[in-house]
From TrEMBL:
<keyword id="KW-1133">Transmembrane helix</keyword>
<dbReference type="InterPro" id="IPR055492">
    <property type="entry name" value="DUF7064"/>
</dbReference>
<feature type="region of interest" description="Disordered">
    <location>
        <begin position="381"/>
        <end position="401"/>
    </location>
</feature>
<keyword id="KW-0472">Membrane</keyword>
<protein>
    <recommendedName>
        <fullName>DUF7064 domain-containing protein</fullName>
    </recommendedName>
</protein>
<dbReference type="Pfam" id="PF23212">
    <property type="entry name" value="DUF7064"/>
</dbReference>
<feature type="domain" description="DUF7064">
    <location>
        <begin position="284"/>
        <end position="374"/>
    </location>
</feature>
<feature type="transmembrane region" description="Helical">
    <location>
        <begin position="28"/>
        <end position="51"/>
    </location>
</feature>
<keyword id="KW-0812">Transmembrane</keyword>
Length: 401
């Protein structure tokens, strides 16, 4: 508002000096009044008290942040900076630096994680994740779907907290490690898994190799500038908001590839070969993603899937569709969920994740994949676990938001 008053005073001075035509001054006054009205107008209420809505200054904020992204990207080039990472600046300069155990930040919820998820056309599927946490803790997730066998999970499922992870992505018999940066990873497990939903414990040995010759997608630098600017412009700006963004920044990248190997269950060997997304790891709404086309990786520019209307109460739909745009083309997706499994992450179960193998149709092409939904969980860790089967999978829990 003070800037508007200064501009108004400057315009009046020019008029007094006879150097500012009256029509120009009237236009200036009108613009200043409109700007003041926008600055003083309260932000629109968030949908369901969660999802921020565009306010009067949305176009101006979008343009300002789009310009900021362009400037940061041009200035940084291919350089890396941990302190100023994100929004066009990468945090690690090479694949060798990215594909290794990272130092944990000084925060009780800090994490350094690697996830692998995938589905095969014959019904086999895998979710393997290891998230290193402070105090020598690890969030370990292993879900394996085998045709004719069923779904296998760790004995502590849906709890994920185990000892380990001090210097490796390893704990509870699960180990995930890189063999060649951005080319080969290994996933191994030896121990007992619980057959779902009977609860029977069986001896399992798993040995899978993830391979890829595709480029990785770095969310620090490869996201659509238009989508990021849209997400930023929707939020109410304040010192606290930008402070939360800085504190919550994560280096996150993904890569598509193939995982193949064997899973031995109770002495019987099963071959497993699946397409996999590898994901070594504050907005109310941000559109993230990418499309692999021959010779290119294209970030999505927009997506019309409104989370406020899909699963806001803790139970996401099992049959739904949405559209998105990437590379100047519009894609249409239909999703059919085949099954759902819930895991809770964090010492106090701060997060509830739904891992759901799905059948997809992208335009006229059939496909398979995983859909992961994450909710904030405020219900805390229960007094007893594992939970009964009726409470384990696909059911919203008290405190989910």
């Amino acid at each position: 508002m003070s800037a508007a008053l200064l501009l108004l005073a400057g315009g009046a001075a020019l008029l007094l000096l006879g150097q500012c035509p009256l029509p120009l001054l009237l236009l200036l006054l009108l613009l200043l009044v409109l700007l003041a009205a926008c600055l003083l107008a309260p932000p629109p209420p968030a949908m369901f008290a969660v999802y921020s809505q565009p306010g009067p200054l949305y176009p101006l904020k979008w343009a300002a942040f789009r310009l900021l992204l362009a400037l940061r990207s041009a200035r940084a080039g291919r350089a890396a900076s941990r302190e100023g990472a994100g929004y066009g600046v990468r945090s690690l300069a090479s694949a060798e630096q990215m594909e290794r155990v990272q130092p944990l930040a000084d925060h009780p919820l800090a994490l350094d994680s690697v996830w692998m998820q995938g589905v095969s056309p014959d019904g086999g599927w895998l979710v393997a994740g290891a998230a290193r946490r402070p105090a020598g803790r690890l969030d370990a997730v292993l879900l394996v779907g085998l045709p004719g066998v069923g779904t296998l999970c760790l004995p502590r499922h849906p709890d994920t907290v185990v000892a380990g992870g001090s210097g490796a992505f390893a704990g509870a018999g699960l180990r995930i490690w890189p063999e060649e940066p951005m080319r080969r990873w290994r996933v191994a497990f030896a121990g007992q898994l619980r057959r779902h939903p009977s609860g029977q414990l069986v001896d399992v040995a798993l040995d899978l190799r993830f391979t890829s010759n595709m480029p990785h997608f770095d969310y620090d630098t490869d996201m659509s500038a238009a989508a990021v600017s849209r997400a930023m412009a929707r939020e109410p700006w304040s010192r606290q908001f930008f402070g939360r963004l800085r504190d919550a920044h994560q280096t996150h990248y993904e890569q598509l590839g193939t995982a193949s190997g064997t899973v031995t269950v109770a002495g019987h060997q099963h071959a497993l070969r699946i397409g996999v997304v590898s994901q070594p790891y504050n907005f109310s709404r941000i559109e993230l993603g990418y499309v692999y086309t021959p010779g290119a990786v294209r970030p999505i520019d927009w997506c019309d899937l409104e989370l406020g209307y899909h699963g806001e109460q803790g139970t996401p739909p099992t049959d739904y569709g949405f559209s998105f745009g990437a590379g100047g083309r519009t894609y249409h997706v239909q999703v059919t969920v085949l099954e759902a499994h819930t895991v809770y992450c964090g010492a106090d179960w701060e997060a509830r994740l739904l891992e759901r193998p799905c059948r997809y149709r992208l335009d006229d092409q059939a496909g398979w994949g995983m859909a992961e939904w994450q909710y904030r969980h405020n219900g805390g860790r229960p007094a007893r676990y594992p939970l009964p089967p009726s409470e384990q999978d696909g059911q919203p829990a008290a405190g989910d938001t």
